[in-house]
UniProtKB/TrEMBL annotation:
Gene3D superfamilies hit by this protein: 3.30.1380.10
Pfam families: VanY
Domain D-alanyl-D-alanine carboxypeptidase-like core: 22-177
GO molecular function: peptidase activity
Protein name, UniProt field: Peptidase M15
InterPro entries the UniProt entry points to: DD-CPase-like (IPR052179), VanY-like_core_dom (IPR003709), Zn_M74/Hedgehog-like (IPR009045)
A biological process from GO: proteolysis
Length: 222
């Protein structure tokens, strides 16, 4: 069973090396490697762009966005002017694209952001924006292959709705046999305990509105 530390990115005891600096849980690693092998037979070089991310990394992303040291993007991937935003508006703008520290699914060792470097045009940088994966985008063929095949390896996309709290992420896949259990175990108390004694920008507003934030940005709709 996953511990609170594993759920919140404060432990790496549940992880094994996938490739390079990428880490996942053992069964998720086996499943991804099997899918990667079959993707290669179909002509794709399926690669992780991101996998496990620890609490400290997510904390840095969050705090830099809150404090204006990193851009906060709108639904059209354009930088927002956060100078006139109140705390609540700013927190929700960040949550559209970035999880709270301790609440990222990437803490669990079940999540990957994937792409095919051979489909990325020379000189172009991977942005992880929806248009890259949609019709006419660089990775459209990979998107279709994953849609048709990833369930055979127990992967699915958790963020598929444009109208949900979290933005549509066609690059993000999750290993369901473990992630659905992590969803069951993860709650507000686990998150609040992970925040104890740590620098979390906007923490007072976040604490006061945590139930609402859980429903809109953390809990995945069935």
């Amino acid at each position: 069973m996953m511990t609170p530390e594993m759920l919140t990115g404060l432990s790496t005891d549940h992880l094994v090396t996938l490739a390079g600096n990428h880490r996942l849980q053992f069964n998720a690693t086996k499943a991804f490697l099997a899918m990667q092998k079959d993707a290669a037979k179909a002509g794709f070089k399926l690669q992780p762009a991101s996998s496990f991310r620890d609490f400290t990394r997510q904390q840095t992303i969050w705090n830099e966005k809150f404090r204006g040291q990193r851009p906060v993007l709108d639904d059209h991937n354009q930088p927002l002017n956060i100078s006139a935003m109140g705390e609540g508006e700013l927190c929700e703008a960040i949550l559209r694209w970035s999880a709270l520290p301790g609440a990222s699914r990437h803490h669990w060792g079940t999540e990957l952001d994937v792409y095919d470097p051979f489909l990325l045009p020379q000189g172009k940088k991977l942005l992880l924006e929806p248009w890259e994966y949609e019709d006419g985008g660089y990775f459209e063929p990979l998107t279709h292959w994953l849609t048709e095949n990833m369930s055979h390896y127990d992967f699915y996309r958790p963020y598929t709705r444009h109208d949900a709290g979290v933005a549509y992420e066609p690059w993000h896949i999750s290993y369901w046999p473990i992630s659905h259990e992590a969803e069951r175990l993860f709650d507000g108390n686990v998150l609040l305990n992970a925040w104890q004694g740590r620098d979390i920008a906007g923490i007072d507003w976040l604490r006061n509105n945590l139930s609402y934030l859980f429903e809109k940005y953390i809990k995945i709709a069935d």
